[in-house]
Design brief:
Elements lengths: L1 E8 L8 E4 L6 E7 L4 E8 L5 H13 L6 E7 L4 H17 L5
Parallel strand pairs: 4-5
Antiparallel strand pairs: 1-4, 2-3, 3-5
Length: 103
């Protein structure tokens, strides 16, 4: 298991907590909590060692596209592809925007 940490600039804190996905074969879970104003911190626990640069590229693409709410994000990965990572993050952001928890 590899542990990765990332941090990105952000706006005001998110309004709520969100949980999407499941940890299982080839999937991942994304948990979001409101963060400290001005920054989003991401902690990734992954079963695939040596993919830090891939995670960095994927997350930088997502978090540099537009300003987002300040969040503390925990991602538990069990070998998900970058496409699944993007889909789960989009699902989590949609749940934040909708004001309800995802599944």
């Amino acid at each position: 298991m590899e542990q990765l940490q990332f941090e990105y600039p952000a706006g005001a804190p998110a309004r709520q907590r969100v949980l999407v996905g499941v940890v299982g074969s080839g999937d991942l879970e994304v948990m979001i909590e409101p963060g400290d104003a001005g920054k989003t911190s991401i902690h990734v626990t992954t079963s695939v060692d040596g993919y830090g640069r891939v995670w960095d590229a994927q997350l930088t693409r997502v978090f540099s596209a537009e300003p987002r709410a300040a969040m503390r994000i925990r991602i538990h990965d069990f070998g998900a592809t970058p496409g699944v990572v993007g889909m789960r993050l989009a699902e989590a952001f949609e749940a934040l925007d909708d004001g309800k928890e995802g599944s």
